[in-house]
Design brief:
The complex is a heterodimer.
Chain A (H helix, E strand, L loop, with lengths): L2 E5 L2 E3 L5 E8 L8 E6 L5 E7 L6 E3 L7 E6 L4 E6 L8 E7 L10 E2 L3 E5 L2
Parallel strand pairs in A: 2-11
Antiparallel strand pairs in A: 1-3, 3-8, 4-5, 4-9, 5-6, 7-8, 9-10, 9-11
Chain B lengths: L3 E4 L2 E4 L5 E7 L7 E6 L6 E5 L3 E2 L7 E6 L2 E6 L8 E7 L6 E2 L3 E5 L1
Parallel strand pairs in B: 2-11
Antiparallel strand pairs in B: 1-3, 3-8, 4-5, 4-9, 5-6, 7-8, 9-10, 9-11
The chains are: A mainly beta, B mainly beta.
Amino acid sequence: EELLVESGGGPVKPGGSLRLSCAASGFTFDTYSMHWVRQAPGKGLEWISCITSSGSDSSYADSLEGRFTISRDNAKNSVFLQMNTLRVEDTAVYYCARGGAVVLNGMDVWGQGTTVTVFS
Amino acid sequence: DIQMTQSPSSLSASVGDRVTITCQASQDISKYLSWYQQKPGKAPKLLIYDAFNLETGVPSRFSGSGSGAHFTFTISSLQPEDLATYYCQQYDRLPLTFGGGTRVELK
């Protein structure tokens, strides 16, 4: 079974940092691009970042203003999201999702999500 | 950025009804559109990719059509388990963008 499992969410104060992890299993991880998508409470889906299968290229939503960094470790079948200078508006459920061989693709496997709560 | 406008934002229908949702892109995205279903408290699920291709295992009552900037998602006969929020998403270019969602409720 193709699975993605996120971890690393939790409560954090404004200005703080968190590192989310997403562990993949059941498929050849290093042949797929990976994405992070978030959903604020009661709101819709927002794409925030992606990384190519090799990890050589990444892209981000403008709204992040350079505060987040995506990375991956293909030897450990994992993708990460380093989140710095967190703001209250970053409060959301964060999902990792599998893209295609290229980043411009739909997302066909999703994790269960990990919740990040930024509050003072 | 490409804006995706979904309508309606919510709808109420009866079991067996035909349900149609539209998604308008702010520019031509060819066929590069997916539709997702999200049930409360759950992750989104891919239903359709490349505008009209059904993901493996998805019931045939779900369908998609359109190209360019105008797309349609249809449930031919609404079932109780279809109660969810549906999102379109373009992948013609980065940043990937989603529509605002359509909540489907039972009348």
